[in-house]
Design a protein that fits this description.
The protein contains no helices and 17 strands. It is mainly beta. Strands 4-9-6-7-8-5 form a six-stranded antiparallel β-sheet, with no helix packed on it. The N and C termini lie close together (5 Å).
C-alpha cells in the first residue's frame, strides 16, 4: 500500500466542478498529433512533482478532457516535468479527438481509499461529488459537503474507504466545487 498526495488544490471557478485529482491543459493538442510510435507531449498546468509521492506518475492512466465532450484515456509514458506529460494510448492508437487548452486532465487509477480535507480559511462550503455534472445548488451528484473553518481551526474532511482486498474505487470518480479560490488537500491510498 502507498499514499499518493496531491498538495493543495485550488478551485479555479466556483460553479464549475473540477477533478479532485487533476490539472488542466495549457496548450491545445490536435487529433493524431504524435512524436512517433503514437506518443505525444501534453502541456499541463503545474502539478506537485515529488517522485513516488505526488501528482502524476509514469504508468498512470489519465483522462484528457475529463467531464467534457470528448474524453480520452491515455497512459503516462513519462512525466517529463511538472508541466509536461508524454502520453500514449495503451492499444497503440493515436489521439482520436482534438483537445483545447484549458480542458481537465484527471488521474484515473484504482485506489482503496480517498481522503479530502478542506483548507482552513476557506470562505464557503466545499462540495464533493462523483460526477462532472454535479450541481451544488440542488446537491445532485454531491456525496458530501465540507464546512468552511477559520484559520487555526481543525478543518473538516471527507474519507471514502474501500473495505476488502480489491480496489473498488477509482480516482476519476471524485470532483469538487465551491467558491473560486477555496482549497482542498486530497490524497488517496493505493493497493
Amino acid at each position: 500500500m502507498g499514499k499518493r498526495t496531491w498538495g493543495t488544490v485550488s478551485l479555479a471557478a466556483g460553479g464549475t466542478p473540477q477533478p479532485v485529482f487533476g490539472t488542466t491543459t495549457t496548450a491545445a493538442v490536435s487529433a493524431n498529433a504524435a512524436l512517433g510510435g503514437n506518443s505525444f507531449l501534453l502541456a499541463v498546468t503545474a502539478f506537485p512533482l515529488v517522485a513516488g509521492f505526488t501528482g502524476f506518475q509514469n504508468g498512470d492512466n489519465i483522462i484528457v478532457e475529463a467531464g467534457g465532450t470528448n474524453p480520452e484515456r491515455f497512459l503516462i509514458q513519462q512525466v517529463v516535468s511538472s508541466t509536461s506529460l508524454k502520453l500514449r494510448k495503451e492499444d497503440g492508437s493515436g489521439i482520436q479527438f482534438a483537445h483545447a487548452s484549458g480542458v481537465f486532465v484527471q488521474l484515473a487509477i484504482p485506489c482503496i481509499s480517498v481522503f479530502i480535507q478542506c483548507i482552513e480559511g476557506n470562505t464557503a462550503l466545499i462540495y464533493i461529488g462523483n460526477t462532472a455534472s454535479m450541481v451544488k445548488a440542488t446537491r445532485v451528484g454531491v456525496i458530501a459537503t465540507l464546512e468552511f473553518t477559520a484559520s487555526g481551526t481543525q478543518p473538516f474532511n471527507f474519507a471514502d474507504p474501500m473495505y476488502g482486498s480489491t480496489p473498488g474505487l477509482t480516482s476519476d470518480s471524485y470532483w469538487f466545487d465551491g467558491t473560486t479560490g477555496d482549497k482542498i488537500l486530497p490524497s488517496l491510498t493505493l493497493l
